[in-house]
Structure formats: C-alpha cells, structure tokens
Amino acid sequence: MRTFFAVVSAACVGQQAVGFAPPSAPLRRFGTLSTFSRTGAEPAGRTREEAEAARAGYRREKAASWGTPTRHRDDISGLSRQGGEAPEIVKQMEKLKAEQAEGEMDKPIAGELDDLMNYPSQMVDLEKMDVEARISMIQADADYFAKRAGWKADEDGQTDLEARETSWSGQAGMDEVENFDGAWAALPKRKLLLAGDLLALYLFAFIGRASHGEDVSGGLLNLEVWQTAAPFIAGWLALAPPLGAFTRGSTMTVQMAAMEGAKAAALSMPLGVCIRAGLKGELPPPVFVGVSILTTFTFLVGWRALYTKIRGQEDEDGNREENLVDTVKMVLTLIKRW
C-alpha cells in the first residue's frame, strides 16, 4: 500500500516539478487545497490566479474575525509557495514551530502549519533537488497520505529484521547460501554429507567381513565392523576436507560432486590402507589393496552424486533446481495444514 500512496503523491507533486502539467491544470493548484477545504470552495475549474486571490481573501476575512495580525498566515502561505533549498525552509519552519509551541499562534493557523510540516513537498521546489532527495520527499508525502487514510506507515526509529531473523511459515521457505569455507571447520555444517561418507565406508567393511564369513550381526552396533572401517575413515577425515570435499562447490552439481569425491577418495583411501597396514604390522595382499581402494572409491563417489541429485543442483548464485527434498517438505506442509 505504501507503493500505492507513493504513486499518488508522485502524480500530485512530481508532475509539477518536471513540468508535465500546464499552469491551469488541477495538479498545479494542489498547494491551495488546504484553504479550499476550509472555505468549502471547489478547486476544479479555477486558475492559479483565481486560487491565490481566493486564498488571500480568505486570509483577510479570517484575520478580521480573529482580531489578530496575519503575519503568521502570510509566513506559512509563503513557505508553501516559495522554491529553494530545503535547509533554509526548514529553519523558517522551526522558527514558526517554536512560536506555535509558545502559544503565540492561533489554533487555525497552527493547524495549517501542521499540514505543511506533515506534507513536506509543499515547502520545496522539487525541480531544484537531486533525484535521491526528490524520491525521499515524495516518499514522505506517501507516508502522510497513508496515515490520513488509516494505513500504517513507517515511523522513525523502526528497524527491519534481517531475513535470517524472520519466522517463515507455510509452503514457502528460504535457503541461506553458505560457502562452507575452511577444511575441517566445514564438517559441522555438512553433517548429512559426512554421515553418508561414514556409512559408505562402514558398508564397505560390512560387505568385506560378510564375504569372508566373519561376524557382522548387530548392524551398525557391531564394533568389529567399525574397527575394520576405522583406518579408511581416518584416512578420509585426514585428507578429504583439505582437498575441498566439503566445500559448497563440491556438491553444486552431480558432475562436480563426482569429480571432487573421486579426487579425495583417490588420495585418502591409499592412506587408509597404509594406516591399516601399520596397525596390523604387516603389508596386505595386493588384491586386497586393489579391491579396497576400488570399492571405497565407488561407494564414496556414488553416495556424493546421489546426495547432490536428491538435494538439488544449484548455480553460482545459490539458485537450486526442484528436488526430492523440496517435494517432501511441500507434502509435509500440506499435511500439517490439514
């Protein structure tokens, strides 16, 4: 609604500033509306000269009825007609405002002063102002009209909340783009990706022990399976983060996820084999080395490509394509509304 009132204000005062309307157009007589509202006269059909004459006659008539000098009203009327720089006009307005506060001004005249204070574009020549100042002035007029119409307008001292402090509800949501800078510092921010990596290595150890007829009962609670996977997990955690496997770019697209995962696995898995050999105190058979590196490589790259596909690929600006996660969120939101 604030935009609507800004358009209305711009239509009223902006055209006068750039000279779009002829002198006899109703928009050029906008400064006389406060007087017409008191006299009951109709502004439509009057020229500017007729409006000023009516205004002067009204001042003389009211001055006689009030029994007070017309200096204040002449000063106020002059402010609404004169052009010039805003600071000088503001000084004059402050002087009149001080007289109003001291009780030296009659209430009807003080009311017109309040109108001018609340409607600032009447006091300045918009044509002499730069674009930014002109927009601010028109925006102030829009706030004035909004208040007069009963709408809530911006007040001084109000602050806007940042997007991350805003409570979002409904089907729409907001994704905050993070760069995940750093090596190991990015791990707490990418818990799901890290958990998938660990499960991929656990699955490798589980299949290896099962193929040799060793005990794999208990599932994820089987400590012996975790002991088999531990050297490879250590190698992965030691080299994958500094190699960029947990940066934002590593999962932007399926292709990048596969490439970054392959680079990290190609270096970290041989390190895992070396750690296992050191713990065992013997070199493993070449077949075991080849199968271990190839299997862990496949599991890690496959998991990361699947993760990126489900999460949704994104571009450099953080715009993400439609994905399964968003679809699930939408369904859950609709169920919650029911």
TrEMBL record:
Keywords from the named record: Membrane, Transmembrane, Transmembrane helix
InterPro entries: DUF3054 (IPR021414)
Region feature Disordered, mapped onto this chain: 57-85
Transmembrane region(s): 283-303
Keyword Transmembrane appears in the UniProt entry: yes
Protein name stated in the entry: Uncharacterized protein
Organism: Chromera velia CCMP2878
